[in-house]
Amino acid sequence: MPSAPEETLLQSAELTRKNELIMIHETKIAELTEKYLNGTLSENEKEMFLLLVHSNETYKLQFEQYQTLYRTFNHMALKKQVSDILFGNASSIRSKKTTRHNPFLSYLKYSGVAAAVSALIIIGTLALTGIFHNKQSQHDSYTLLKNTLINISKRQNQSKTNPVITPAENYASGTCFPISTNGYFITSLHLVKSSQNLYLSNPSDTMRYKAEVVMKDSLHDIAIVKISDTTFVSFKKLPYAINDKQYGLGEYVYTLGYSKNDIVFNDGSISSVTGYLEDSTSYQLSIPANPGNSGGPIISSDGEILGILLAKNSGVDNATFAVKSFYIRNLIDSISQLPEHKLDIPYKSFAKNQNKVQFIKQLQPYIYKIEVY
Questions:
Q1: CA 177 to chain CA centroid, nearest Å
Q2: According to a count of CB atoms within 10 Å of the terminal CB, is the N or C end of the chain lower?
Q3: Please, which residues have CB within 8 angstroms of residue 122's CB and are 6 or more apart in sequence?
C-alpha cells in the first residue's frame, strides 16, 4: 500500500490528468451531446453514457435538464422553419440547410445558464471514461467484451436443488475472479449492471452459485459481486496478489477467461500505459480478446493482478483495454470500510517458485464464469 504522501501525490496527479482531459474535450462537448440526443452514437457509447448518467442522481437531473434544453431548441427551430414556409422565405431555409447551423450548439458555446454548465460537467466526465472515439466514422471501435450468446454451461451431475435456468433475452456472460477468500469477486460493471439473476461457476466444480452485486464503480466500469449461496465453501487462500503499483511499457501479461465454455488463455504485453483516448486509468494491451473475456484478470509474470479486461478496439488488431489495479484496490478498500463486508485480501503471489504452466494450472479453479439473466 502507498504511504500517505505517495497516496496524496497519486490523487493529485490523477486529478490533474482528469482536468486536462476535460479541457481537451470541452470543444467537442456540444457536438457529442447532440449526437447522443439525436441517436447517432454507437450502441456501446450509448450504453456507457446511460450507465454513468443513471449511477448518480445529480448526473441524472442534469441530463434531464439538458434534454429539456435540446428539445426546446429543436421546437424553436421547427417553428421558425414552419414560419419561413408559410411566409415564403424558402431561401432562408436553403441557407440554413447548407450551413447546418444549430442554435442548440451556439447556445452551449455562449450561454451562461446553469443548466448548460451542468451538462458540460456530465459530458466532461464521460470524456474521462474513454467511451467516445475521436473519429467522425460511424465505426464502433470501443467494443465491450461481454458475451450475449445464449450458451448455458451444463453439468452432468447437476443437483435437483440447483437446476439449469432457462436463459432470458438479456442473457450475457463473462469472467470474474475472487478478491477475498470468502466469496467476494470482481468483474466488469457493464456485464452485471442490469442483472436480475447472477450465477457464478467454475469447470472444477459441479455447482452454479447465486450471487449479487454489492458495490459498483461506474467511472471505471468495475463491480464487486458476492456469492450468496450458502453451499459455497470459502477458499483456503488465493494464489495471486492484488497490488496497486504501476506497470511499464513492454511488461509481459496474460489473461484467463471464458470466451467459450472452457477457460481460454491469451497473452501479450502492455503496449501503452494509457488506454482508449489516452485514458490514464487503464492500460492498452496487445492481447487478443473475444466476447466473454470481459471481467477477466490481467496477470503479470510474477503472478500479480495488474488489471481487469474490459474492452477492445475493433479497428485495431489485438488492442484491448484493462482498468488498472490501483482502481481495483480503491474499490476493495471502499467496501472493506463497511462493517457488513469483511474481506481477506491477498497480498502475496505464489507464482515465484513455479513455472508459468504450473501457475496457470493453479489459477484455473479461481477464475469463474459469470452468467447474467
A1: 16
A2: N
A3: 52, 53, 59, 62, 63, 66
